[in-house]
# Entry
Amino acid sequence: MDQVYNDYILYYEARMKKREYDPFYNHSYLAEKAMYELVASCSSMEELQGQADQFKTLSVQNAVALVKDQERFRQKIYNDCKETIRAKAPAVILDQLDEMKSDADIVNMVNNVLQQNNIEVTVDQLMHIFYSDFIALENIEVYQQAVVPEEWKTKIAQYEKDIFESGKKIWLEKELPEAGQWQQGWILDYALLKEERHRRLIPVNDEELEKKISLHQKYKPA
Amino acid sequence: MPIEKIYVDAMLGTFRNMLQDCREKKSDGESFEKMEASMNRMETLALEMNDFTAYSTKLSTEGLFTEFSTAYGAVLAEEGQKKYAGNTYNDAQLLEQTLSAYENSLSQLDTNPDKEKLQAPVKAVLKLGRSGINYPTFLRLLIEKGLDKAMEGSVLSRETLEKDLQWAIDLQLPVYIERNKTILAKYDEMAAVAAFAVPDAVAFSMERFKIESAFQPAINQYQAIVDRWQKLLQLLHDWIDAHTSFAAYDARYASAEGMQATLRNIKFYKECNPGFFKVREDIFTRYFSLQWEDIFVHESFRNECKAKRCLYTDAYINFLREIYPVCKPFTIPSPDLISKAERLHKENHVFI
# Structure
């Protein structure tokens, strides 16, 4: 066997061994192993070139295996974190992966899925508008509930009205139209706030959350 | 009116250069046509739309960046295939092409602030490639020496994580300190069992995501508590000072409409702040199950004082605690408390 070909066998063996005891890359290990076995079963570059079709197939399977290992891990972490929107991307990629016929197919598919998922994540994060309005909602509560002398009641009622009006203005003239650019007809779906990924970011108890939702529906009406 | 040229140029400049580069190389075929179509769509939208935010969102929702980049990648791959199609195997040529690419990348790192650290593994790769070995041996040794991982930039990863931790320590942000320590520990844990002591980039980035997700609620809660007790202290401060002799000359109460309006503002603070305070105190308790006195033993208070982010001196905090029982709707502070406020102000004992 010529030295260069023997060195290729050692190279493919190194690729396989790199994944051998890594539980994270078990699909990749098996794919690298198949690749190594093919290369090692030949004794020259010419003989390997005679198996070019199988080599190409294994190369694609190798890429599929790598993406599969990585997306499975992503899926596990997103599921652990209850990041249901982000978890959609690995689910779709894993679902379509085995149908891929070439590296280019894989790249196209993964890019398209991630691009679509990025939009979904951005749309989901529009829900952050709610918590960012807490300061305004508290100001409303203050002006609604504060015990003050009669002479100031008109003034603070006006303050309260101003907050409602400016909130509505920003909502209707800026936030809703901009949200609609990401997803036509977007509405602030308060039910989503109770999903773990949103709920954990709002540091108040459920009773307070309900009060705030009720006030927010008046502050930024649908 | 179209989107301003300066914004469009900044956004599309790189893509235009890529397309121009392909045109100069006489690229053609389906992928190149897709590049052109994506570029045309981006240019057309820039002319048709007039709001930059809407334009930027449109490019994302239509997937034009992704479409263009994917097509560009395909064009480059097709070019490579054309270039080497039909060539017989030439070990030395393959090695030389690979090393030339690494040499080019060295010059691209010249302006990087971490130039020396980033160039070091590339130089090691070049040294290995020029050591007289053949192409497959070069590829194998890249793996066995961990140089493939080193070139992913992992040489900087741990340093960056250490810097993140130091940032949190310097700013005395306890939850961030805990979070960044946890991330660094995870890196070390993964490095300890990884081949060549470099954690897998994808696995580490996801573990990091998990840790950051776990700590974000505590980060939000800490800041929410701080923001609210700061507001309570400020309301008390503004209330007591509204009763002092210097109030009329204090910017907090000043009106551009003259002294009469200023005096009316002062009256507003005197008479309304106690009511405002009570509502905010109630919100504070409802949110966090914390009472007024709990503030001063709370970790966030101790920490913010230590980090000098609490504006008030210890003496003034004690004073605010003294006036707290008096700050109720329809009450006024005693002359003694007002005198004390004036004295603390005069002696510069209010702010740290």
